[in-house]
Fold this protein.
Amino acid sequence: MTKITAAITAIAGYVPEYILTNDELSRMVDTSDEWITTRTGIKERHLLKETHKGTSYMGAKAVEQLLRKSKTKPEEIDMLLCCTVTPDHPFPATANIICDKVGILNAWGYDINAGCSGFLFTFSTVAQFIETGRVKKAIIVAAEKMSTITDYNDRNTCPLFGDAAVAVMIEPNTEGLGLIDDIMHVDGIGRKFLYLKAGGSCYPATERTVENREHYLYQDGKTVFKYAVSNMADTAAEMMEKHHLTADDIAYLIPHQANLRIIDATGKRMGLADDKVLINIAKYGNTSAVSIPLVLMDFEKKFKKGDILILAAFGAGFTWGAQYYKWAY
């Protein structure tokens, strides 16, 4: 029997027009372009400024472009999953809202929250449905409006995050291309170091939670950095060892775009030359679950059919993982 794998067949995205530069941020909080760039590699980030337009707005824009690009009708889609930590509402799922906005009526789906590892976790989930034949055409929507949970009075976190959405078409492949393997991990200790305290069932919204600014994300930067550097790099290297891959075999590393130093450490751990590590963090900042597909979208024209890519991410939870992927078109 021919093995079926899950392959990306098209990709499209939406990035808001408004750009918040480091210079503008330096007039909002005590920081500077030099301080931000040196520590993170970020120069600017895009923000969705329009009132009452949330994650589903960007997600729907991305899906509409994907359907046009792939010449696919909405009724052909069997499944749509949305990976996000900034859903429109606690319920219904943002995936369902996106389906309604773009006219996808024959699909089912739901949201996945795996922090910045969201795309990898969602791709692995969709792959199970593709490989078993239960789903023929699936869309992954990675969409984040991080500006809604970013405290622009906090100089340590406000330079980091941006808004964006990318939609990816996933279909069966029988050429040995697509998602070959993945290694995924979670460690609940991360809930102490990177989280959004209020707004859930433990700490519902009150005047005090608002006054204490507990509806913005909290990050213990030093601890998160330490875990991210070791785990993201180790898992990417583990994937290489598992499949006997050398640096020469790998076309590109597609890393989560959280911090340039973490990306550099992962590339060095894998023995890769700088030109094999794809980076766009300077333009977008950390877009959480969107960052990996945003890199794929930005550099799509660089990839050749059969190219070996290693996708690697680390996020809140903690969650982390690596995927061995062969470009399918």
